[in-house]
Amino acid sequence: MLENSKAYEDILSELENLRKAYLDLKHAHQETLYRLEEATDTIEAIRTGEVDALVVKGSEGHQIFTLKSADQSYRIFIEQMTEGAITLNESGNIVYCNSQFAKLAGSNLEKVIGQPLLKYVIPEDQQLGQKLIDSAWENIDTKGELRLVDDGNPIPVQISLKLLNLDEGICLSIILTDLTIHKENQKLLEEKNFQLGIAELKAREQNINLEAIVEARTKDLQYSIEDKTRIAEELNANRLQLQNILATMAEGVGIVNEEGKLVYANPMAQQILGINIEEMEEKIYHDPNWQKIKLDGTPLLKHEFPLFIVMSTKKPIYDFEIGIIPPNREQFYISINAAPIVDENGNVTGGVATFMDVTNRRKIIQQKDDFISVASHELKTPITSLKGALQLLNRIKDNPSEQMPKLIEQANKSMDKVSLMVEDLLNASRVTLGQLHMNMSTFKLSVAVEDSYQHIRAIDKDKIKITGDLELKAVGDPTRIEQVIINFINNAFKYAPNTEEIRVSIFKQGDLVRLEVHDDGPGIAAEKLPYLFDRYYRVDDSGLQYSGLGLGLYICAEIIKKHNGKIGAESEVGKGSTFWFTLPLGN
Question: What is the pTM of this model?
Answer without folding.
Answer: 0.40
